[in-house]
Structure formats: structure tokens, C-alpha cells
Amino acid sequence: MSRIAYVNGQYQPHSHANVHIEDRGYQFADGVYEVVTIVNSKMIDEEGHLQRLWRSLAELRIDAPMKAEPLKMVMREVVRRNGIVNGIIYLQVTRGVAPRDHPFPKNTPPALVMTAKRLSMDKAEKTAEKGVSVVTVPDIRWARCDIKSVSLLPNVLAKQAAKDNGAYEAFQIDADGMVTEGSSTNAWIVDQNGKVITRPTSNEILAGITRASLIRELEKKGVEFELRSFTVEELHNAREVFLTSSTSYVLPVVKVDEHVIGNGNPGSISMTLREIYREFMNAAS
Ligand code: PDD
Fold first, then answer.
1. What pLDDT digit, counting tens, does each position of 199-213 carry?
2. Most buried by CB count within 10 Å: which residue of 20, 156, 261, 269?
3. What is the 117 CA–ligand 1 centroid distance (Å)?
4. CATH level 3 topology of 4-118
5. CB of 251 within 8 A of CB of 123?
6. Whether the CB of 35 sits within 6 Å of ligand 1
7. Does domain 124-284 have CATH number 3.10.180.10?
8. What residue segments make up the domains of the chain, in order of their start?
9. What is the mean pLDDT of the chain?
10. Is 148 among the residues known to form the active site?
11. Is the shortest distance between the CB of 151 and ligand 1 below 6 Å?
């Protein structure tokens, strides 16, 4: 089945889908995006992702490209036309196409693009069973990391630093030596007392939808956790480390910089939380 993209009202072959060279996303990174996971042909946390999309748009004063119901219909159609059982859908909204000029253009409709991609559940499971490694990098991003902007250059540089070091992810460290989040994931630790810890939401991190759903599941199950910032030393000396995102779910980390975490295998609490999140996804799908 060949891939299909949605571009400003049209379904186009993915290989030929394109936008205008003066799309403000292309010239100014003036846009926002969402990545929604699909499991067993169902979207996980669709409402949470759409709420965050509306919020990102409102914060940047970009008009919504369409109302929620038609948007959901297009999302379903993209999933259907691409025959996605397990994978992701990517949505991007920019401030539209206009002659290059920094201020917001007048009378310019926002541009909406969607693509979809299959992901292998088996591969994800094998990765989780082994665990992944992480490096730390300085957080050089702007003061509105709560907005899911397509302006991702620091995140791209951070992820490349991870790749250059044979790692899966880079955790970013703020000027006070505290961990903010990964380049495309939220960061968590389990301290030596077995307490699960992640940073509270603020303008310094993205309010991850996976993070929020895992927190809800922990509350339901009465698993204790703490919302607080933690230092890079706490990260290095943690009993367990894991990360969350729509594409990684709950993923154990077994090495951070040169520090082996625990015995170098995924920690039991991380694996239990992965299982809890998996049950949540299965119930939703
Ligand atoms: N990234 N932090 C950052 C900086 C992110 O870009 C993401 C998501 C997350 C996790 O958020 P969520 O649980 O809602 O996926 C945290 C997506 C997957 C991406 O850029 O591909």
C-alpha cells in the first residue's frame, strides 16, 4: 500500500506531496505539530493531543485550520488510507503561505499537513527489553518549551549528539544543573528508595501526553510518585531511569553518560510501568 499524505485539503501520494516554498513553517519555523500513536488501528490519547494542539496554536495566535470534528475525520481518513494498524500520525499546522516578512501576515489561512507511518511493535519491544542509553547535553532552547513548535533545531542537535555517542536519547540539563527533558521525550528517575520522580510541567518542558497518561494510571493504581526537578547527579545515581513519549511509550534507560544504571538491565519498576502503560493503550485501542 503506497503512503498518502494530507496537504491543505487534498490527499496526495506521499512521495509527491509538497507545500509552497513560502510556507512560514519552512521559512520561520512558524508552526506547531503533534504526533499521535496508533495501536490496533486506534489513536491513543487523541483528545489530549488535540487539546495540546489547540493550546499551542492559541499561544502563537495561529488560527485553527478546522474545527475538532472535521480534523478528527481527516485524521481517521489518513490512518485508513495508509492502512496503519500500529504506527503514528503526524500533524503540522503553520501560519500559512505569505511573502517573507516577519510579522503575522493578514488574511492568510493556516496550512495543515498530515502524514502517517507504520511502526513495528516487535522492534519497540526488543528495544525496551534491552533498555537504551542516554547522554546529557546543555539545554539551549527558548523559554517556551511548553509550546509544541516545529522550531526544533536545539532538539535536532541534542538528538544528533546522542546518535554520535551511540545513544538513543539526549537529556537536556538547564543552567542550574537540573534535568529538563529529552530531545523528544520526558525524563523520569526512580530514586534509591524506589520513589518515581519526574519534573513538574512549566514553560521549561513539553507537557507530554504519555507523561500525563502514565501519571493518571499511577494515581489510579496508588503508585507513589513525586513531581519535582532532579539534578544530573541524581540522574547518574538513580536506581532506575526511564523516558516517555508517544513513540517510545515507557522506555527503560540502562546507561546515562558513563554511568551504568542499576545492574545495566531495565529496572523492575520501569518495566512494570511500561506494562501498566501497555495495558492502558490496549484498553484504549
Ligand atoms: N516528541 N518532550 C519533547 C521535547 C517532545 O518533543 C516530546 C514528543 C515529548 C513527549 O511528549 P508526548 O508524550 O506527548 O509524545 C516530550 C514527539 C514524539 C516528536 O517530536 O516526535
1. 999 999 999 999 999
2. 261
3. 16
4. D-amino Acid Aminotransferase; Chain A, domain 1 (3.30.470)
5. no
6. yes
7. no
8. 4-118, 124-284
9. 97
10. yes
11. no
